[in-house]
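DUF4136 domain-containing protein
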Amino acid sequence: MRKIILPIFALALAVVFDSCSSVKVLDSWKGDNASTMRDKNILVVARTNNPQARYAFEDAITAQLIKEGFKATESYKKFPKLNPDKKPTEEKQEMIRSILESEGFDGVVISVVKDYQEAEQTTTSGGYNVGAGYYPSYYPQYYGGFYGFYGMPLAYSTWDSGVYMPTTTTTRTVKTFVLQTLVYNLDLPQDKQMVAIVTSKMEDPQKASVAASDYALAITNALKDKK
């Protein structure tokens, strides 16, 4: 039996950061009906007001879905004028529903940035002998159906010889994003449409294309069937 894999996401980011991205899954849930997504025509939506980030994440998520055997399309390719980060009116929601139905989309993977924080991180190095050994130690009821959700406002060391290195201190700003991805089967009743959700934390991502690939991998691993 093939594994059910539902990778997903989007991040308001197109700037290059100096450090590598770190993605950690904080929480995930997958319903018993997640297998229903296998035969769906899925629209991938990255809810962000940054066009370049939207393109990068929708491309990465769609590519991963297709790799795993799903049928998926980036929303920016199908609906280039759609602003997924703008809160839709009831009229706009009805129009979106009509478009999805007319285009044959019966599944949606939507990603949003839930929180963003900046914190100062101080790192101290040196104070030890170079050349010596160094050993460091260091869900569904709340969200409802897709259309309802879419309209919501929401480190012991040892040493014995070598050249002593003086202590130096470096302070940098750490940027942290909390991301959430939801998977919907639009053919199910409103209260059963959400079939999977993953909440992740991403620290200091690089440019959007790299961050998107890292995120998609983390989401894929979180949603794989457990053996």
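thats it. The domain at 22-115+176-223 is CATH 3.30.160 (Double Stranded RNA Binding Domain). Helices lie at 51-67, 75-78, 90-102, 140-143, 146-150, 208-223. bye
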